Amino acid sequence: MEIKIFANAQEASKQAFNIFKEQLESGAEVFGLATGSTPEALYALLADSDLDFSNAVSVNLDEYVGLDNDHPQSYHYFMHDHLFQFKPFKQTFVPDGANLDADSAIKAYDEILVTYPRDVQLLGLGPNGHIGFDEPGTDFDATMLKVSLTESTIEANKRFFDDVKDVPTEAYTMGPKAIMDAKTVVLMAFGKGKAEAVKSMIEGPVTEASPASILQNHANAIILIDEDAASLLSEQTKTAAK
Ligand code: GLP
Hints:
The protein has helices at about 10-25, 40-50, 75-85, 100-115, 150-155, 175-180, 195-205, 235-240; strands at about 1-5, 30-35, 55-60, 60-65, 90-95, 120-125, 145-150, 170-175, 185-190, 220-225. The radius of gyration is 17 Å and the shape is globular. The model has no long low-confidence stretch (mean pLDDT about 95). By secondary structure, it is of the alpha/beta class. Strand 9 (about 185-190), helix 7 (about 195-205) and strand 10 (about 220-225) form a beta-alpha-beta unit. The protein contains eight helices and ten strands. The structure holds 2-amino-2-deoxy-6-O-phosphono-alpha-D-glucopyranose (GLP).
């Protein structure tokens, strides 16, 4: 893992932007994208830039089950709202949360993952160490799967909904294996609420109990964090990161 610690989220997002720019300029064609508040600053930088993604393909990580694609809290909507309306891609894929037939939704997306191998995969980090919607305990060998969200993830995501009862309880998500298939992985995590998860990801054992820890085994994993998210790391890790 290459770990970089920044004074704040904006500085880390600028670095993520530079990685996307370099990837695009060196011929990357397929970008794995993520949702949540963490990548919003990166998407704003991309939207304002003169980078041209019109020959690129995007493949998103996950989607809630049971929300129509035009629901304001769906990840389809999020991607349109934050990026695609400003920066058109040749093709964009997000798992189909409106398809309640899990077998067919998973099979369709597994085929997309095979057809469009990702050059780079962007990730956020859940406070409990999840990546995508791969909650603690998710099988590291899973490619695409349907998951039940943990209470803590529903709690963490309720801020986007009018009522906690409106938060979907299930999601389709790329599994750890699919995430690891990307040539380069860029994970961002900001704020004290992520500090425990960052510590487990970087300094803990590689275990399904801490899904992001699998990135220790990735040949090109770049971790961009702010000082608050880095606050529980050992001095040794922090020194090596700077
Ligand atoms: C959700 C998403 C994840 C995201 C996480 C953290 O659970 N499925 O992809 O990384 O939230 O969200 P935030 O960036 O808002 O902290």
